[in-house]
Amino acid sequence: MTAAQIRFFALWRREINRFMKVKKQTIGAPLLETFLYISVFGAALGSRIDELHGFDYVVFVIPGLIMMAWAMNAFSNNSSSLLQQKFQGAIQDQLSSPASPAELLIAFSLGGFLRGMVVATLTFTAGSLLADLPVEHILVLIPSLFLVGFFFAQLGVLIGVRAEQFDDVALAQQFVLQPLIFLGGVFYSASLLPEPFQTLTHFNPVFYCINLVRYGFLGFSEVNVALSLAALAVATAALFALNLRLFQRGYKLRA
Amino acid sequence: MREQTDIRNGDGGASERALAIEGLVKTYPNGVAALRGVSLQIEAGDFFGLLGPNGAGKSTLIHCTTGLAQPTDGSIRIFGHDAIEHYAAARLAVGLAPQEPNLDWFLTVEETLDYHAGYFGMPKKERRERARELLETFSLTEKAKERTRTLSGGMKRRLLLARALMHRPRLLILDEPTAGVDIELRLELWHYVRRINEEGTTILLTTHYLEEAEQLCNRIAFINEGDIVAQGTSAELAARYGVANLEDAYLALVGREELSRSHLEATAEVPA
Asked: What is the DSSP letter of B176?
């Protein structure tokens, strides 16, 4: 390994180590939450709900839950990790190292990305055991999930860098992200909503993420898949470019 | 610790500047001018003391040198490497033991050292050996598996110093390393830093203990209100201010000569 590789892996390992040390909270709790959603919406309520667009209700819901698991964990891991390290001052150890702004940004991002991937994979495994979950378009599914994971990982870094107190992170997560995800159609199809809510849903970016992942699994989407995937890729690239710019400027990291 | 000497000999001669700061200005976004055009040269092998009252700009100067603060103007070169343009090479040469413990609560003592060395590109085997050696040196071996949060204040200080030394820096920056530590540890640290200085590591020390600066440093600079106001050996500084010792020179600098102990003793001798 070259010195640059050693450096990058050390930065990334630290991020992984952090969430693995508190895995009850960072992996166990999100898994339990997903399991509860599947039980309540799939088993308890689902039996009372007719098929949605030709799918069992629980099967319709699981792709959204997988996307939600990846997105929320990527976001909350990175926002908390950055804010905590800024709080303790511990981030100075990385900032005064030879690591470049891009190396720092990518390593911080990939921490949450990996945690999201772990929770999403476990959710997928549980979902496959509990229901008959198809995988129709793996070539759409994989890039969609990776982009969703990376987008929310970037968003977590952005909020974590900007945040000055724990309230700032909670605000973004509880008052913006969670409502957007819930109202983006994880648990229902937008076509069931009355107007104006049906149209409003189309202004929610998470709606497109959910549909992409749902299309990957079920082959069903309420939006144009190619266009959504392209838009998600552009949004992810733009967010990464913004973060990179902030890291290069040392925004709220270097005095 | 022969490697300290080896590294130094490996590139550049003893006459090379460890730190060359020219016209360094730092104005914080809130308008506070922390540094107003500081120029400072530290030769390789120096044990250099930077003294000044709180808020004089010591920590800002250190932060600019280590990349934690971004200079508004001026240049910083560390062993010839520009700290902005070639920050990677410059930072590789510097080890910082900060004034405020900035340890990661999630990590154990051992992990703290291992990650730090990783950030500096040190291979695994070398990291392990170096960590073992420094844990031993700073009597931290028994604490290796404990999280940093559980350490006492003195233990944290030791760990900060061990961490700064992990990647074998050629310039070691100690920002008030003995603030709040007990006498034994202070003396232990003195012995250790004096030894690594003799072995070739250049040291920049800030302290409020003038005795410490006198004991350890071959050169001392006074910084006040964001500028270097005087520098030289302890004796030169005393001579410059026309006083008997470093403490009186410092008091002259901050305009509190009336606190001088020799002055007080002299006044006490005058019959009432």
From this structure: S
Kind plus residue range of the DSSP H or E element containing B272: none
Pairing label, strands B202-206, B171-175: parallel
Average predicted confidence (pLDDT) for chain A: 92
Percent of chain A residues past pLDDT 70, beyond the cut: 100
Residue B258 Cα, gap to closest chain A Cα (Å): 37
State the DSSP code for B258: G
Q: How far apart are CA A96 and CA B68, in angstroms?
A: 6
Tell me what pLDDT residue B155 has. Answer: 92
- CA atoms of B36 and B8, how far apart (whole Å): 32
Chain A residues with at least one Cβ partner in B under 8 Å: 1-4, 6-7, 9-11, 13-14, 17-18, 21-22, 85, 88-90, 92-100, 250, 254-255
Domains of chain B, by residue range, sit at: 2-35+47-232
* Whole-structure pTM value: 0.90
Minimum Cα–Cα distance from A103: chain B residue: B119
Burial class (CB in 10 A: 0-12, 13-18, 19+), A158: buried
**Three-state DSSP state, B219:** strand
What is the crossing angle of helices A138-162 and A101-130, to 10°?
130
CATH number of this structure's domain B2-35+47-232:
3.40.50.300
Element spanning A242, H or E: helix A225-249
Nearest to B110 by CA among B94, B88, B87, B127: B127
pLDDT of residue B3: 41
Rounded to a whole number of angstroms, the distance from the CA of B128 to the nearest CA of chain A is 14
Structure tokens at B215: 């004991």
Contact residues, chain B, for A10 at CB < 8 Å: 114-115, 117-119
pLDDT at B156: 94
What distance in Å separates residue B87's CA from the closest CA in chain A? 7
| pLDDT, tens digit (0-9, with 9 covering 90-100), for A117-127 | 999 999 999 88
d(CA B82, CA B75): 7
Helix axes A205-218, A225-249, angle to 10 degrees: 130
Q: What is the pLDDT of residue A137?
A: 96
Residues contacting residue A57 through CB under 8 Å, at least 6 positions apart: A41, A42, A45, A46, A49, A50, A51
ipTM reported for the complex, 2 dp? 0.89
Q: Which residues of chain B neighbour A100 with C-beta distances below 8 Å?
A: 88
Q: Could you tell me if A204 and A180 are in contact, meaning their C-beta atoms sit under 8 angstroms apart?
A: yes
pLDDT in tens, B168-199: 999 999 999 888 888 888 898 899 999 999 99
